[in-house]
Design goal:
Length: 728
């Protein structure tokens, strides 16, 4: 229907609250009697704490407690992998990395806690940490079983490569990165008897419940987690980092609410970073450009306390049709701060290597790189042979090439000069997993004529709250302004956590199911409630139509009906099942096109234009969906040209742990991005047909930029970020 809000550019329903400062983020939580925690972190990269003199800190004004390994808050071992740390803080005197949490000071004010933290005198028996990824590469160990897909007749991937007429091989390296969400991590905990209420940054309130129940040794039913607004996550608000259990335990021990907010510097070491990677990709092809073999051996760094093991080569099992594929997984264990998931974990780094290798193959073949990609487009997942549920990547290529003007590309590198600038064009393919898990949603129809859609999702800035409102309004046939959303509260029905680009694909069908359920419930209520104009009617004769109940010539809005009957609301919940289709492969797809300009004399690379065409099924909100892709392209630009977490090899210290030394793209670095959605519903995934877009846009973005830099300059830079020194 043309008046459906689905796919329209709808402004965020919580946008005004956010830009006026009225939205209460975790750190904004104010409670009576609030005390303030401040983390103490290690200043050596490896060793044992031999002493922590807390006397001066304890004597400082306002200090309530100083917790250390010698005076810990008791925490039980973690049992769930949440891609955070595998041990709780303060439970022993070991220092496993530089910047590890070794204490928590609690005081009457934040300033008092911070001041006292500087007074804690720590002595260590320190050793030099093994913190250099490049030095550790020769000693890389298994990070999981390799995967081999081999055609009949190929004894090994090397066999298949040896039989390939054309081969290219190169090693690509990527720098560690930090997420740097605008909102730093923060936790506020308060106890009423044995009941814990906690306001904490998270990509899913249910994740906090499970972790705290385990480590505090209490029943999950005693924990209430609230986090309606999140200022960016990108993966490092999935896990529960040291401040979460420490703040909860400190509040319990002190009998007072406690708030702990991390400093920007602490968000570099306490809450994880994207691993460094080194990937060797060898491609085999026929002279006509048909891929015959892909060998993708990835090695990634792994921090001392990390659960997460990156699999950079996995992207090669999902991108191009190829009869022989090998994916190798290794890690370099480092005595470094913790490595964790970050936006498109594995794919963001893996696609850089694969998509640059494809570009190098195109050069070796003398073929247009877009044509090479088209020629190897896969209709079934190369890793397992399952046909894709819905794939229109070829259309992404066609539409993108047209919008971008790819046909104007001069095939010769370093051929286009505009004043002092070398101009180049590059392309890359993107794909990311699509999934639908089980989710429950409640819809409440109010006597004020509004509908409220609720579930435990998280809105990291993605617009998930607005998706709830849009889908509720669409199903109920009411304006979006009359639909509200409740999100980020563990007492709500169990919906999807925000991760793996699956919030809308999972929660969306549940909203639709709950809308259907509440319509049925409204009719039941109308025919069974005395005083209702429909009282006693056969429910089959009453229908719901755009906010009204209709039977014969009677039509009453649900708001009027409830008001007349003095009932505040009717509500219903529904659960939508997880995707049960095991026959198909589900992925989202995109094609990137990029123009860069590299200064001839300074080597400065600039992204001049970028087009991204996305095939992700139904787009629920054109405005916030575009923002997701623009954000991901911006992050890809950062990965390509700027972002580089500098872990000092000798000390394991992150040397640029602030936003002055760690460069993220700002407006002056970014062009206006051209984003186009194809909008082909994926009806095999769900009736809604929406896949995911949160992570897709960063996949391949850095490769498209790097390929454009090659085309502009004739220089193949295989090490991210591509800083100007590498182009001189
Ligand atoms: Mo995201 S890295 O799926 O939390």
């Amino acid at each position: 229907m043309s008046d459906s809000p689905i796919g329209q550019p709808v402004s965020r329903v919580d946008g005004r609250l956010k830009v006026t400062g009225a939205a209460t983020y975790a750190a904004d939580t104010r409670l009576d009697g609030l005390a303030y925690g401040y983390l103490v972190t290690s200043t050596v990269g490896k060793g044992v704490i031999t002493g922590m003199d807390t006397a001066a800190a304890l004597a400082a004004p306002g200090v309530l407690a100083v917790y250390t390994p010698a005076n810990p808050l008791k925490l039980l071992p973690y049992t769930q992998n949440q891609n955070d740390e595998n041990i709780p803080p303060l439970q022993d005197a070991q220092v496993r990395y530089h910047g590890q949490v070794i204490g928590l000071v609690v005081a009457e004010t934040f300033e008092q806690a911070r001041e006292a933290a500087t007074l804690v005198a720590v002595t260590y028996a320190a050793q030099a940490p093994a913190a250099s990824f490049s030095a550790g590469l020769p000693g890389a160990v298994s990070g999981g079983a390799p995967t081999d897909v081999l055609a009949p007749g190929a004894a090994s991937i090397d066999d298949a490569l040896a039989a390939s007429p054309i081969t290219v091989s190169a090693t690509y390296t990527t720098a560690p990165q930090n997420h740097n969400a605008l909102e730093p991590h923060a936790t506020v905990a308060t106890w009423t008897g044995d009941q814990l209420t906690i306001y904490t940054v998270t990509q899913g309130v249910l994740l906090v419940v499970s972790r705290l129940a385990t480590t505090l040794g209490i029943d999950a039913s005693k924990i209430h987690v609230i986090n309606p607004y999140v200022g960016g996550g990108f993966g490092n608000k999935w896990g529960n980092w040291a401040q979460v259990p420490l703040t909860a335990a400190a509040a319990r021990a002190l009998g007072r609410p406690v708030k702990t907010v991390l400093t920007r510097e602490q968000t570099f070491t306490v809450v994880g970073h994207r691993p460094a990677s080194s990937q060797t990709v060898t491609l085999g092809a026929t002279a006509e450009g048909t891929l015959t073999a892909i060998k993708h051996d990835g090695v990634s760094s792994k921090g001392a306390t990390a659960y997460f093991t990156e699999n950079t080569g996995g992207i090669s099992l999902n991108t191009y049709a190829c009869p022989n594929i090998h994916v190798g997984r290794k890690v370099v264990p480092l005595e470094s701060p913790v490595t964790t998931i970050m936006r498109a974990p594995s794919e963001a780094t893996g696609s850089f290597a694969l998509e640059c290798a494809i570009d190098e193959l195109a050069v070796a073949l003398g073929m247009d790189p877009l044509e090479l990609r088209r020629r190897n487009n896969a209709t079934a997942a190369p890793g397992n042979g399952k046909p894709y549920s819905s794939k229109h990547l070829d259309e992404c290529y066609t539409v993108g090439a047209q919008r971008f003007g790819w046909s104007r590309r001069n095939p010769v590198p370093r051929a286009v000069v505009d004043g002092d600038w070398l101009v180049g064009m590059g392309t890359a393919t993107a794909n990311f997993s699509a999934s639908r898990a089980q989710a429950s949603i409640k819809v409440r129809l109010g006597a004020d004529g509004t509908a409220t859609v609720s579930g435990t999702g998280a809105d990291l800035g993605t617009g998930q709250t607005t998706v709830f409102a849009i889908l509720g309004a669409d199903g109920l046939g009411i304006p979006v302004e009359r639909a509200r959303a409740e999100i980020g509260d563990s007492t709500l029905p169990r919906a999807a956590n925000a991760g793996g680009s699956s919030s809308t694909s999972t929660n969306g069908p549940a909203v639709q199911a709950a809308v259907d359920a509440v319509k049925t419930e409204l009719i039941r209520f109308a025919v069974q409630t005395e005083g209702s104009p429909f009282f006693g009617a056969d429910p089959a004769t009453v229908r719901y139509d755009r906010g009204n109940l209709v039977a014969g010539d009677r039509s009453v809005s649900f708001g009027d009906l409830l008001t007349r009957l003095s009932v505040p609301a009717v509500e219903a919940s529904a659960t939508s099942p997880k995707n049960g289709d095991t026959v198909h492969a589900f992925r989202s797809f995109a094609a990137h096109f990029c123009e860069v300009r590299v200064h001839r004399f300074t080597g400065e690379p600039r992204v001049a234009r970028m087009t991204c065409v996305v095939d992700a099924g139904t787009i629920v909100n054109a405005k916030t969906a575009r923002s997701q892709i623009v954000g991901a392209l911006t992050m890809g630009l950062g990965q390509a040209l700027l972002e580089d977490t500098r872990i000092e090899p000798g000390t394991g210290r992150i040397a640029n742990a602030d936003l002055a030394g760690y460069l993220v793209p700002v407006n002056a670095d970014t062009p206006v991005f051209d984003v186009q959605f194809l909008d082909h519903p994926d009806t095999l995934l769900s009736p809604l047909g929406a896949r995911g877009i949160g992570e897709l846009g960063i996949v391949g973005a850095a490769a498209a930029i790097a390929n454009a830099v090659y085309h502009a300059t004739g220089r193949r830079v295989r090490d991210l970020p591509i800083t100007l020194d590498k182009l001189l």
